Amino acid sequence: MTVDPAGAVATMSPPPPDSPSPRRHPGSPDLRTAPQELALRLATDPAAAGRARRAATGALRGWGVPEDAVDDIVLMVDELVTNAIEHATGPVWLRLRLRRGCCVICKVGDGCHEAPRLRHSDPDAESGRGLFLVAALADAFGARITRAGKVIWFRRRVRDGRIPAPRSTSPIDY
Q1: Angle at the Cα of 109 (from 32 to 157), degrees rounded to 5?
Q2: Number of C-beta neighbours around residue 135 at 10 A
Q3: 3-class secondary structure for 93-132?
Q4: Residue 78's CB: how many other CB atoms inside 10 A?
């Protein structure tokens, strides 16, 4: 687990106890081909949306997600995190997971117990279209109320097959 000065926490889920050891490439750090996950606790200030975008972009690219899907997913992450910061109370968190190498699942949680609603906004309005963007770009999305607040989630297929693990080359010894 790593913690940056702004209070964001990034973690990677450990593999299940009965799973095979992670595949390692010579000269690379601990590279896991099991599901990858990013988890962040975010401050409730506007700068947190930028931290969430940067962290999501780095994680998705590191997992080998195609660039066009990275752009769409980061846009959806930004919309959900921004909504949580602007309209909710309590702690805000983001969890992003690459599942089976082909599907990204995003969850954003906050302390508000009110479910978000799709609403039509005036064509001249500067806000109010975020959930429509998520609905248009995601394969599925929804919200659920929890004891601590609510979780808004989306799922996006990024490739029909598995995304190959990022490769690192070892130096050639002549």
Answers
A1: 50
A2: 13
A3: EEEEEEECCCEEEEEEEECCCCCCCCCCCCCCCCCCCHHH
A4: 17
Please give the DSSP secondary-structure letter assigned to residue 11. Answer: -
- Contact criterion met (CB below 8 Å) for 80 and 64: no
Residue 125: CB partners within 8 Å, gap ≥ 6? none
Residue 49 near residue 94 (C-beta atoms within 8 A): no
The amino acid occupying position 98 is L
- Adjacent-strand bridge partners of 36: 98
Local structure of 15: helix, strand or coil: coil
- Contact call for residues 105 and 97 (beta carbons, < 8 A): yes
| Spatial CA neighbour of 123 closest among 132, 114, 110 | 132
pLDDT tens-digit map of 1-46: 333 434 444 444 444 444 344 443 333 333 333 458 999 999 888 8
